[in-house]
Design a protein that fits this description.
Layout (H helix, E strand, L loop, with lengths): L1 E5 L3 H11 L6 E4 L4 H10 L3 E3 L3 H4 L4 E4 L6 H5 L9 E4 L6 H7 L4 E6 L10 E5 L3 H7 L4 E4 L15 H17 L4 H20 L9 H4 L6 H12 L4 H14 L4
Parallel strand pairs: 1-2, 1-4, 2-3, 4-5, 5-6, 7-8
Antiparallel strand pairs: 6-7
Helix pairs in contact: 7-8
Bound molecules: NADP nicotinamide-adenine-dinucleotide phosphate (NAP).
NADP nicotinamide-adenine-dinucleotide phosphate binds next to α1 and α4.
């Protein structure tokens, strides 16, 4: 079985790195663009080969589409997928009905990985469930097979990654503004956020709502900070921004 990638950019590289970490790493063929990324992948992994054209990649059994939406039409011009092939689109907003409209004989799904797939961690979403794809990615993180296409982006949650790091940056700045060294402030914040994430991962659903209470002393500073942030409406902002931004850009299909 051969796997192809048309559009060898950031997210394709992460998916390829993850796939190459599997005990039975698949043979992969990548499109020549991006030149630097595809050359680097072929140099790093014995089972990754760089093709000379998108059409050459399109002959693979499973073909991932990994370009940005504005480059889609140009990248797939003249490309055909037929019976026995699987098309896996990672392209934001490329609706399943459009994929099926282009290549009615191939099986098709949408797949939204996040960069952690490179190290086998983090969430990914797919629709519909194609057994080969579910089997391929189940070992590489938390794969969510959603009930319908409109749920693929989880209400825009996957657009929160860089904002999370901006928040992390702001917290580190709190430390440095208080005279803590950059190294210590960064180390403290990363360790604290990591600890909170791991705690949440190990908390059963029945106890999940207790995490807030368990991480604040009554009348203590955590409680006061949270109460003050609540009073400013701070926790309502992400939902409003995510809703507005993702709906504006991708429409309801994500
Ligand atoms: N980044 C993420 O975390 C993430 C997660 C899930 C889904 N996605 C989706 O995945 C897609 C790619 O995102 P990305 O962040 O990986 O973008 P990216 O780094 O810009 O990668 C896009 C790739 O497409 C290539 N490309 C452009 N036109 C092409 C053509 N005609 N033929 C072949 N390749 C072509 C680009 O090559 P050049 O550099 O030569 O132009 C580049 O390698 C987007 O639709 C995005 O919404 C991204």
């Amino acid at each position: 079985m051969q796997i192809g990638f048309i559009g060898t950019g950031t997210i394709s590289a992460a998916v390829i790195e993850g796939l190459q970490s599997l005990p039975e790493a698949p043979d992969i063929v990548v499109s020549p663009r991006s030149e630097a990324t595809s050359l680097a992948l072929a140099a790093r992994f014995a089972k990754v080969r760089r093709a000379t054209s998108n059409a050459e990649v399109a002959k693979a059994d499973i073909v991932f589409l990994g370009m940005r939406p504005m480059h889609l039409e140009e990248a797939i011009a003249g490309i055909g997928f037929g019976e026995g092939q699987i098309v896996v689109s990672m392209v934001a907003g490329f609706a399943l009905s459009d994929i099926q409209g282009h290549w009615p004989k191939a099986r098709a799904c949408r797949f939204i990985p996040l960069p952690g797939v490179a190290r086998g961690i983090g969430p990914m979403a797919t629709y519909p469930a194609i057994p080969e794809i579910v089997k391929l990615f189940s070992p590489l993180g938390d794969l969510f097979v959603v009930a319908d296409e409109t749920k693929l982006n989880f209400g825009g949650l996957n657009a929160f990654m860089s904002a999370y790091y901006e928040l992390q940056r702001a917290l580190i700045d709190v430390g440095t503004s208080a005279g803590v060294s950059e190294t210590d402030a960064r180390g403290f914040v990363v360790s604290m956020l990591g600890m909170l994430a791991v705690t949440a991962q190990h908390t059963p659903a029945a106890s999940f709502d207790r995490l807030v209470e368990e991480h604040q002393t009554k009348g203590g500073l955590n409680e006061r900070v949270r109460t003050n942030l609540l009073a400013t409406g701070w926790f309502d902002v992400p939902a409003a921004v995510l809703r507005e931004t993702t709906t504006l850009n991708y429409g309801k299909l994500g």
